[in-house]
């Protein structure tokens, strides 16, 4: 049923000013002049520092009100089994809880589970105790059978994006009302992190039966908010769920997610009061928004990275056995190392990202338990030139770099082009629209391509599929038995100190291949009006609205 | 063959050709749907399953026949991106674009005709220079720039109107107005400038025509001469121009909907193209084409009722 989405009663009134006519006219005139020069904003230097991570605002919130959140892109299917976009995870956070969740310190904590899982049978059996007295948004009970139904659907439904994630899972058994037993083909340590993501979301079996393939139109899970309406490309509306087990702690009456792809438009809407939360703000907008007195900034170090993938063997498509590519950069690791040494990560961060991200040279993000913390090698043009001479290649070495059509990728491409030129590379840029670029990368139809990965909590999620032979996202065609061995060890070693050592060696090995050049660890920037408190933005970049609300005494 | 049946047959052939062109055209786009749909985690298994699930593995002719069979029953399929029925999305977007276009047209007519009349009547005076300058500005300024400036001025500096979004008129008329004013100005300003220039030119011709001189000689008031005689005759040209500009209005709506994040046809189409959402692109284009063909058919049939020469053939 269609529901009213907004109106005077549920929209917090925008800040109204009542200046005099002359002042108004002057203000409008100033804005018109400013508007004419708006294009220069991207070159502005940062006006303020953001400081250490800030993930929430502890001020007490009152009950009621509607929170409108602007997302960077439109989520895909609102079905945990079929969903594949990062932005969709943000919406799920409010309406589909998981067996486990992530906390502010990037630790995995129980959510619909009652406690951390126990393992037996050498890690092949995982037992999950469930929280009791939990009901889905449709009022039916969330129990072990519901978890089994959901996990089986994730594993077997045609088109399931979760199926490959849960490949090691061979069977699910409901043991009584509140215990689920998972059997694995082999020990699989990353499973817990997967159960803290969409694979761990539990759907109402009643709704699954009722809506079948149309579940995405009626997503029914356990969460502080329940699905009310979706207008494609515009908004997703969620209402407070009275059936939620912790409903008393939920302040907001309604949450609206709106899709506003342009960062400047997101910022303009924040300034005008039409939205209260702007997700995934770019560094350029961060600089501008920091000077806005009505806005506050939440930020946390991301789990992902920006990088470059060099194609050294992807001739038949990612996942297929690698072949031979006869270009200097694919043939000789010294040429790739020279390319890597020509790049100044600090300068890239300053020029492309306004100095608001963090230079990196590995896939494991700072702030996670497995971060290696090694320092990046400094730019070394002399060594780069020596390596090229040793490789006996004709300079300039021609490299075609595929970039996406975003302004950020354009800047990144141009900076790389300029830096690599000094070492003896002639980089030509190939701006390619997203879907086409993805297809080129998968098919191996590229020499070098920019990479932007949103990141996963478990180190396996940031390495295995990118570096393992036949990995689904191993677009560069890297194939190294030592890397494959370390990946297998990392997946089955549960003890954290031992696993950390494995991943440290793995990262060194992957870096030495110079197939993926890690450049930048981004920061999750979320701007929120100061009238809102309790919002949480953790390392996974998802906005958590369960505890959010308008501050007491505010409008 | 009778005229209505012949016209109906022609319309069906046109519709068939449109469906073929759209179907083939969307598939000719570079970039693979299944890869795009697999999102951040495009595993080969997921891609293969998506292909199978949406019938993308089938021969293109089989896909086309299946599509037409469903479309004939009003089933435009399910969006491969959102999993929602295409027809629902189309019906949600339609009122937004219709309202935006209608209001922009109204603005263009009211402002353009009014300014054109003033410019003609006050020829050689400051008013004419001012109207000409504003019209030139309206024609020259790109829609996206004007949109940003208007948002900065009237949604942020002086928060009178909304910066983006849409509230249906039936839900809250005042909120609807608050959201539509700026997009309507952006979309309507260019058209208003064209209308103004055409009105001015036509009015200048009319004001120097014999029938206007005669009207003045008969002692009619200045207002009666301008509004009742000169403007009335000039409107024929203006209406013709408006007809020719309708296409620009629709294409302009695409840009305007992007700037103001209006959930109309333009935004729906662009989002669908970028995500290779075949079903949605086909649905939107097929729906628009069908509406266009049906309206033309009805107009032609109406003509034939009004003027028997049309249905009987020009020679008779």
TrEMBL record, chain A:
Keywords associated with the record: Signal
Solute-binding protein family domain boundaries: 108-471
InterPro entries: Peptide/Ni-bd, SBP_5, SBP_5_dom
Domain of life: Bacteria
Keyword match Signal: yes
Biased composition (Basic and acidic residues): 51-62
Region span, Disordered: 1-20, 45-64
Entry protein name: ABC transporter substrate-binding protein
Matches recorded under PANTHER family: D,D-DIPEPTIDE-BINDING PERIPLASMIC PROTEIN DDPA-RELATED (PTHR30290:SF38), PERIPLASMIC BINDING COMPONENT OF ABC TRANSPORTER (PTHR30290)
UniProtKB/TrEMBL annotation, chain B:
Topology versus the membrane: Multi-pass membrane protein
InterPro entries per record: BPD_transp_1_N, MetI-like, MetI-like_sf
Family annotation (Pfam families): BPD_transp_1 (PF00528), BPD_transp_1_N (PF19300)
PROSITE patterns referenced in this protein's UniProt entry, alphabetically: ABC_TM1
Domain ABC transmembrane type-1: 94-303
Transmembrane segments: 100-121, 133-157, 177-196, 235-260, 280-303
Localization, UniProt: Cell membrane
Keyword list, A-Z: Cell membrane, Membrane, Transmembrane, Transmembrane helix, Transport
Source superkingdom: Bacteria
Family: Belongs to the binding-protein-dependent transport system permease family.
Protein name: ABC transporter permease
Source species of the chain: Streptomyces rhizosphaericus
């Amino acid at each position: 049923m269609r529901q009213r989405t907004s109106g005077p009663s549920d929209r917090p009134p925008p800040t109204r000013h009542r200046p005099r006519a002359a002042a108004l006219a002057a203000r409008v005139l100033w804005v018109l002049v400013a508007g004419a020069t708006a294009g220069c904003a991207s070159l502005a230097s940062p006006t303020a520092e953001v400081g250490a991570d800030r993930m929430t605002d502890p001020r007490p919130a009152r009950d009621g009100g509607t929170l409108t959140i602007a997302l960077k892109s439109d989520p895909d299917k609102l079905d945990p089994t079929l969903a594949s976009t990062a932005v969709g995870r943000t919406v799920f956070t409010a309406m589909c809880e998981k067996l486990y969740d992530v906390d502010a310190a990037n630790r995995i904590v129980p959510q619909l589970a009652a406690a951390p899982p126990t393992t037996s049978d050498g890690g092949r059996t995982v037992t999950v105790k469930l929280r009791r007295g939990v009901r889905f948004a449709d009022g039916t009970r969330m129990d072990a059978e519901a978890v089994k139904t959901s996990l089986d659907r994730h594993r077997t439904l045609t088109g399931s994006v979760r199926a490959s994630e849960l490949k090691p899972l061979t069977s699910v058994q409901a043991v009584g009302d509140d215990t689920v037993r998972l059997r694995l083909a082999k020990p699989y340590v990353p499973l817990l992190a997967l159960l803290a993501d969409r694979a761990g979301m539990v759907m109402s079996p009643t709704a699954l039966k009722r809506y079948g393939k149309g579940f995405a139109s009626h997503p029914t899970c356990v969460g502080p908010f329940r699905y009310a309406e979706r207008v494609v490309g515009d908004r997703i509306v969620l209402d407070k769920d009275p059936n939620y087990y912790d409903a008393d702690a939920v302040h907001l009456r309604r949450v609206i997610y709106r899709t506003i792809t342009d960062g400047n438009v997101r910022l303009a809407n924040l300034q005008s009061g039409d939205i209260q939360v702007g997700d995934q703000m770019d560094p350029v907008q961060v600089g501008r928004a920091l000077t806005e007195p009505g806005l506050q900034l939440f930020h946390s170090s991301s789990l992902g990275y920006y990088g470059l993938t060099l194609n050294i063997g992807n001739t038949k498509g990612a996942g297929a056995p690698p072949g031979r590519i006869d270009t200097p950069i694919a043939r000789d690791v010294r040429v790739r190392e020279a390319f890597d040494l020509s790049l100044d990560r600090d300068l890239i961060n300053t020029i492309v990202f306004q100095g608001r991200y963090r230079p990196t040279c590995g896939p494991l993000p700072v702030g996670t338990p497995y971060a290696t913390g090694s320092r990046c090698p400094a730019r070394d043009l002399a060594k780069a030139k020596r390596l090229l001479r040793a490789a006996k290649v004709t300079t300039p070495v021609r490299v075609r770099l595929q970039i996406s059509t975003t302004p950020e990728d354009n800047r990144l491409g141009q900076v790389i082009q300029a830096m690599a030129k000094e070492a003896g590379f002639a980089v030509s840029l190939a701006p390619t629209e997203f879907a086409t670029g993805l297809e080129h990368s998968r098919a191996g139809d590229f020499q070098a391509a920019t990479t932007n990965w949103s990141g996963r909590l478990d180190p396996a999620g940031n390495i295995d599929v990118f570096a393992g032979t036949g990995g689904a996202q191993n677009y560069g065609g890297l194939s190294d038995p030592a890397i494959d061995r370390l990946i297998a060890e990392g997946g089955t070693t549960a003890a954290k100190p031992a696993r950390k050592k494995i991943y440290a060696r793995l990262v060194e090995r992957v870096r030495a291949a110079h197939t993926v050049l890690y450049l930048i660890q981004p920061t999750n920037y979320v701007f929120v009006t100061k009238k809102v408190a309790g919002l949480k933005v953790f390392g996974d970049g998802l906005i958590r609205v369960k505890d959010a609300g308008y501050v007491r005494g505010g409008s | 063959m009778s005229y209505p049946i012949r016209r109906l047959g022609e319309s069906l052939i046109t519709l068939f050709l449109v469906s073929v062109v759209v179907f083939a055209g969307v598939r000719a786009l570079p970039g693979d749907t299944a890869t795009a749909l697999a999102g951040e985690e495009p595993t080969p298994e997921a891609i293969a399953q998506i292909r199978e699930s949406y019938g993308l593995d089938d021969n293109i002719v089989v896909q086309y026949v299946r599509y037409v069979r469903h479309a004939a029953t009003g089933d435009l399929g399910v969006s491969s991106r959102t999993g929602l029925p295409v027809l629902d999305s189309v019906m949600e977007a339609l009122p937004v674009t219709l309202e935006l276009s209608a209001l922009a047209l109204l603005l263009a007519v009211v402002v353009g005709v009014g300014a054109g009349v003033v410019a003609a009547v006050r020829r050689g005076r400051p008013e004419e220079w001012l109207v000409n300058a504003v019209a030139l500005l309206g024609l020259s300024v790109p829609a996206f720039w004007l949109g940003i400036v208007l948002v900065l001025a009237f949604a942020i500096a002086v928060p009178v109107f909304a910066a983006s979004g849409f509230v249906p008129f039936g839900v809250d008329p005042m909120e609807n107005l608050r959201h539509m004013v700026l997009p309507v100005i952006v979309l309507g300003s260019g058209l208003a400038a064209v209308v103004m220039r055409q009105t001015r030119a036509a009015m200048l011709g009319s004001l120097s025509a014999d029938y206007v001189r005669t009207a003045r000689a008969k002692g009619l008031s200045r207002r009666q001469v301008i509004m009742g005689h000169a403007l009335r005759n000039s409107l024929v040209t203006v209406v013709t121009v408006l007809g020719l500009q309708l296409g620009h209005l629709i294409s302009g709506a695409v840009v305007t909907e992007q700037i103001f994040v209006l959930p109309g046809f333009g935004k729906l189409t662009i989002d669908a193209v970028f995500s290779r959402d075949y079903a949605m692109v086909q649905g939107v284009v097929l729906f628009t084409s069908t509406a266009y063909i049906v309206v033309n058919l009805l107009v032609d049939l109406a003509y034939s009722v009004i003027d028997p020469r049309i249905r009987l053939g020009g020679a008779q």
